[in-house]
Design brief:
Blueprint lengths: L1 H5 L2 H13 L3 H7 L20 H10 L12 H13 L17 H8 L3 H7 L14 H15 L13 H15 L3
């Protein structure tokens, strides 16, 4: 408990939620009165960027919600944000990698919960795809779904791509012509 109390308010809340949702309701009840109000302290927290605009953009793009048991890692989130900011001047990719279950998805989704970042660098929104290990049929379905989402406002409805190569070509053209930024 002393270690948790030495961290920020979100750590205490996450610990409480973990107890609550992992079958330790009695222990959680003992801690309930001490749940602090979330405050950002001296530094701006990623929670501050959660405006209705951010919620809408992330929801429409399929970005995963914050997990019930959530521990802030501001240095890592800030590092991802910095890399995303670099895409404003130099096109490219930001790749987050690591072992399965280490928090890549949570960290990346958390970096996107920033109103200014989304507005400045993702004017067309965000489209989130979880690929993982897929066979060719599963990958084709994911790519067809992405094509459909990106072509949603097209005047002429497109048929879904019939194979992975066709999907890659269509996505390449969409990225170059419609979503170059």
């Amino acid at each position: 408990i002393n270690i948790i109390l030495a961290k920020d308010n979100n750590s205490y809340r996450s610990f409480y939620n973990a107890l609550l949702h992992e079958g330790y309701r009695d222990l959680a009840a003992l801690l309930q009165d001490g749940i602090p109000v979330i405050s950002s302290g001296n530094r701006k927290s990623s929670v501050d960027g959660m405006t209705s605009y951010v919620k809408t953009v992330l929801c429409e793009g399929g970005v995963p919600q914050r997990p019930v048991v959530f521990v802030t890692r501001p240095k890592l989130v800030d590092a991802i944000k910095q890399k995303l900011h670099c895409l404003g001047s130099d096109p490219g990719w930001v790749v987050v990698y690591g072992m399965a279950g280490c928090g890549k998805t949570v960290l990346t989704a958390e970096a996107l919960r920033d109103h200014q970042l989304l507005e400045a660098y993702f004017p067309g929104g965000v489209q989130w795809i979880s690929v993982g290990k897929q066979d060719k049929a599963g990958l084709l379905i994911k790519l067809q779904n992405l094509c459909s989402r990106l072509e949603h406002d097209s005047a002429l409805p497109q048929r879904p791509p019939l194979n992975i190569e066709e999907a890659k070509d269509r996505l390449r053209l969409l990225m170059l012509r419609k979503y170059s930024r």
